[in-house]
Design brief:
This protein has eight helices and 13 strands. The protein is an alpha+beta fold and 334 residues long. It has one domain (30-322): Sulfite Oxidase, Chain A, domain 2 (Alpha-Beta Complex). Strands 1, 4, 5, 8, 9, 10, 12 and 13 form an eight-stranded mixed β-sheet that branches. The chain has a five-stranded mixed β-sheet with strand order 3-2-11-6-7. A hairpin with a 5-residue loop joins strand 12 and strand 13. The longest helix has 14 residues, at 51-64. It is globular and about 50 Å long. It binds ligand MTE.
C-alpha cells in the first residue's frame, strides 16, 4: 500500500513503498540467491539453489507440513476456472506480497516464515446464536473445498491472477450462525508483535481489521482462502485462512484471520482508520475513480510487462453491481 504520511501518525518516509522505487522481484531474488543482497530478516543468504527454486521449496515445504495437505488439490469450480488472463507464476506471487505485519514493503516472504500457523483457532462472536472458538483444522475439514481462479487487483494499480482453494464466504457466515439483526461481518488478523515485528510499528491501527455487509458476504464471489496453486497456502499469502473479494481492491482481502464478528455497526477498517482521505469501507474497483494520488485507469500485470485497462468491479460487475443499487450517495469506490 502506498502511504502518504498522515500527519497524526507521522509515518517515516523510509517505510512507505513508492512505485518509483519498485524493485524488480527477479533481480532482488537473484541478488539474494547470489548473496549480494541480504533480505531483511533472513538468517543467511542462499548460496546454491537458484532463487526461484528456493522460493518454490519454501512454498512447497510449508504446504507439505500443513495438517490439511490431504485435502488438496480440490475440485475446480467450473464457473470460476478461467479468469480471462494467464495465471500469475507462483514464484512471482509468492515474492511480491502486502503483509504489513511482517514489513511495509513487498519482499516479506522470508520474514513471514515466522508466522506460527498451528495451533490456530478462529473465534466467532457478536450477533451470533452462540459465540464459539473453533480449531482451524476442524473448521477447514467441515467445509467442502474447491478451487477458483480469480483476478486480484491492488489499489496500488498492479494485478495478478491466482488459483485459490477454499470455500464460499457465505459458508463461513452460515457457520457463524448470525442473528437476523446482524448487518456486517468483521474480520480480524492475529495480534502478536513478537511473531510479527511490523505490529511494533505503533502508528498502524493493529490488529488489521476488515469488513463487508452481510449482503456482500452472501454474494457467491466472496471466497475464504485456505490454499493457493493447488496446495495449502504459504505464510506470505495469509495462512491459514484469508479472505478474497475479487471485485474490491486487494486491501479488503484480509489475511491470517482469527476473529469473525457479526454486528449491526459498520466497522472502522485498518486503512480507513489510517488514511481516511484515501481509503474507505467499500473500496470497489472502478477505473474512473482515481486514488487521490494516482490513476486507477490501468493496472500493471505482475510477472509481465503488460499494462492493461482496469475494469469496473474488476470485471465482475455482472455478479456484484446489483449489491450497490440505490447506494449512489455512498463512497463506493475508494
Ligand atoms: N491482511 C493483513 N492482515 N495485512 C496486510 O498487510 N495487506 C492487504 C491484503 N490483506 C494485508 C492484508 C493488501 S494491501 C493487499 S493488496 C493484499 O492483502 C495482498 O495480498 P497478496 O500479498 O496475496 O497479493
Amino acid at each position: 500500500m502506498l502511504i502518504k504520511a498522515p500527519r497524526a501518525w507521522e509515518l517515516p518516509e523510509r517505510l512507505a513503498t513508492p512505485e518509483s522505487v519498485y524493485l524488480n522481484r527477479r533481480e532482488l531474488a537473484k541478488g539474494i540467491a547470489a548473496g549480494s543482497i541480504i533480505a531483511a530478516g533472513a538468517a543467511a543468504p542462499f548460496s546454491s539453489a537458484s532463487a526461484d527454486d528456493a522460493v518454490i521449496e519454501q512454498v512447497n515445504g510449508q504446504a507439505a507440513a500443513d495438517p490439511t495437505a490431504d485435502l488438496y488439490p480440490a475440485q475446480m469450480n467450473a464457473a470460476y476456472s478461467d479468469a480471462g488472463r494467464p495465471i500469475t507464476a507462483e514464484v512471482d506471487n509468492a515474492t511480491y506480497n502486502n503483509f504489513y505485519e511482517f514489513g511495509s514493503h513487498k519482499q516479506i516472504w522470508q520474514r513471514a516464515e515466522d508466522l506460527q500457523r498451528r495451533p490456530w483457532a478462529v473465534t466467532f462472536d457478536g450477533m451470533v446464536e452462540e459465540e464459539k472458538t473453533v480449531d482451524i483444522d476442524t473448521l477447514i475439514r467441515s467445509m467442502q473445498l474447491e478451487e477458483r481462479v480469480y483476478r486480484h487487483r491492488c489499489v496500488e494499480a498492479w494485478s495478478m491472477v491466482i488459483p485459490w482453494t477454499g470455500f464460499p464466504l457465505s459458508a463461513l457466515v452460515d457457520f457463524a450462525r448470525p442473528l437476523g439483526s446482524a448487518k456486517y461481518v468483521v474480520f480480524q488478523t492475529f495480534e502478536d508483535p513478537d511473531m510479527a515485528p511490523g505490529q511494533s510499528q505503533f502508528w498502524y491501527p493493529w490488529p488489521y481489521t476488515e469488513g463487508v455487509t452481510v449482503a456482500e458476504a452472501e454474494n457467491d464471489l466472496g471466497f475464504i482462502v485456505t490454499g493457493t496453486y493447488g496446495k495449502p497456502m504459504a505464510n506470505q499469502f495469509g495462512a491459514p485462512l484469508r479472505l478474497h473479494l475479487p471485485w474490491k481492491y486487494g486491501f479488503k482481502s484480509i489475511k491470517s484471520i482469527v476473529r469473525v464478528t457479526l454486528t449491526d455497526e459498520r466497522p472502522m477498517t485498518f486503512w480507513e482508520e489510517l488514511v481516511p482521505s484515501e481509503y474507505g469501507f467499500w473500496a470497489n474497483v472502478n477505473p474512473e475513480v482515481d486514488h487521490p494520488r494516482w490513476s486507477q485507469a490501468t493496472e500493471r500485470v505482475l510477472g509481465t510487462s503488460d499494462r492493461i485497462p482496469t475494469e469496473l468491479y474488476n470485471g465482475y460487475a455482472e455478479q456484484v453491481a446489483g449489491l450497490y443499487e440505490g447506494m449512489e450517495g455512498e463512497r463506493l469506490f475508494l
